[in-house]
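4.2 Preliminary Data

To establish feasibility before requesting continued support, the project team ran the inverse folding procedure on a target of 138 residues. The structure was first converted into the token representation described in Section 3, and no sequence information of any kind was made available to the design step. The complete token record follows.
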């Protein structure tokens, strides 16, 4: 009987060890399950953040496209204005080089007391031409 008692004690101890191993296994399984749930929640938050960032990026692209269109329209308007100003400048230069304007400039300058030499340099006329204009006006 002693052998049977020893055999019974051996199997009881083995069963207790197996029961302990099963308990440890289930505890670790619960921890793994909790970690898996936490990772799943983190992944869902990450996907939501990615979606939000994609929306922001799309809004930025749309805003950039809109600004590009506005800049293009402004560039065209600027080119148009530049052409208009160039035409006006050309017309003004033609007027400034006209003999009537030069004559008027000489007469007005003489009335303000400027010397014929200064008036000749300002109008691009010779000193003799300036003196003739002044003599004709007097």
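Position-by-position output of the design step:
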């Amino acid at each position: 009987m002693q052998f049977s008692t020893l055999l019974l004690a051996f199997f009881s101890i083995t069963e207790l060890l197996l029961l302990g191993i099963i308990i440890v296994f289930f505890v670790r399984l619960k921890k793994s399950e909790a970690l898996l749930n936490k990772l799943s929640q983190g992944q869902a938050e990450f996907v939501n953040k990615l979606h939000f960032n994609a929306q922001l990026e799309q809004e930025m692209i749309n805003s950039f496209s809109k600004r590009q269109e506005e800049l293009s329209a402004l560039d065209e308007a600027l080119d148009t204005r530049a052409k208009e100003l160039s035409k006006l400048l050309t017309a003004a230069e033609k007027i400034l080089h006209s003999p009537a304007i030069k004559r008027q400039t000489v007469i007005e300058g003489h009335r303000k007391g400027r010397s014929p030499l200064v008036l000749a340099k300002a109008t691009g006329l010779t000193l003799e031409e300036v003196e003739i204009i002044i003599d004709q006006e007097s």
